[in-house]
Amino acid sequence: MEMQEKLSHLQKEYVVTMDVENDKAGNLITETTLRSCQESLAQLQEKQDKCCKDSKEETQKIEDADKKLKFLKYESLHDNNDHTMTSEDVDSMEIQTVSEQTTKIDELVNKVLHLEITMASQIALIERTKTESNDLHVKISILEDEKANLTTDKQNLFVRVEELEEQLGKLQNLHREVEKQNRSLQAQLAEAHSCYDQLCERLKPDNHTVKHVTFADEKESNGSTQEIADTEAHWEKDEKFNWQKMLLNGVEDREQVLLKEYIAILRSYKDLKKKYDDRVGGFEIELQMNGLRGAIAKRDAEIRYLHQKLNLFTDEKKIAEPGYVVKKVRKSKSRTGIPLREIIFGTKPKKHRTSVFSCIQSHKYEAMKAGSSS
User: Fold this and answer.
1) Phi, then psi, of 153 in degrees rounded to 5
2) Where in this chain does the record put each NET2A-D/KIP1-like alpha-helical domain (predicted)?
C-alpha cells in the first residue's frame, strides 16, 4: 500500500511538472517564432533597400562603362577614318549604314516599349510587396500586444502564429519575384543603353568623317562640305527641315537626315499613341454613360407603369366601397339656350314649322275642337 501511494504521488508530481514544462516550451516557441518573423521582415526590408541602392549603383556603372567604351570607339573610328575614299565607295557604304540604322532604331523602339510595360508591372509588384509587408507588421504588433491575454489559450496563439508564418512565406516568394524581375530589368536596360550608345556612336564619328574623307573630285568635296555646314545651321534654326531636298546635298547628310526624320516620326507616334489612349478612355466612359442612360430610362418607364397600376388599383378600390356615386358629367349650355356646339361650329338653329291653325285664336280653336269631339 505504501509503495502504491508513493507511485501515485510521484505520478501526480510528474504530470504537474510536464504541464509546466509544456507551457514554458510553448512560450519559448512563440517568442522564437515572433522574433524570427521580425528578423526576417527586417532582412527583407534591408534587401529591398539594398536592391534599390545596387540598382542605382549598377546604372551608374553602366553609364560610366558606356562613356568609356564610347570614347574608345570614337578614338578608334577617328584613327581609322584618316584615309582616302571615292564617292562610289561612300555611296555603297551609306546605303548599308542607313538600312542598318533603321533596323537598329526599330529594335530600340521595341525594347523601350517593352521596358515601359515591364517597368509598370515592376512598380505594381513593389507596391504590393510594401502593402503586404506593412500589413504583416501590423498583425505582428497586434499579436505582440495580445500575447499576454493569450497566454492561457495556447492553441489560439499557435494557430495565429502559423497564419503569420504562411503570410510571411508568401511575402518572401513575392520578394524573390521582385528581385528576379529587377535583375531582368537591369539586363534589358543595359541592352537598351548599349543599343542607344551604338546609334549615338554612329552619328558622332560621321561629323568628323567629313573632315577626313577625300573625294576623287575636289569640287564635289568642297561643295559637299559647304552644304553640310549650311545644313547644320538650318537644323539648329528649325527642326522641321525639308529632308527630301537634303538627300540630294551630300552622302554624309543622308544618314543624319533620315535619322532626324525618323526621330520626328517617333515623336509623332508617341503623341498619337497618347491621344489614342485618351480617346479610348473617353469612348469607354461614353459607353458607360450610354448604359446608365438606358438603365435610367428603363427604370423611369417601370416607375410610370407602377404609378398607372397604382392609380387603377385605387380607383377600383373606391368603386368597390359602399355608397360610391358616379358623378355624371353635365353638358355645358350657353345662356341663350343654343348649344355650344352650334355656336362654335356655326350651325344655324332649326326653325319650328308654323301650323295651319296658327292664325285662329286659341279660344276659337278650343271650341272647334270640342264640337268635333261631340
Assistant:
1) -100, 80
2) 90-204
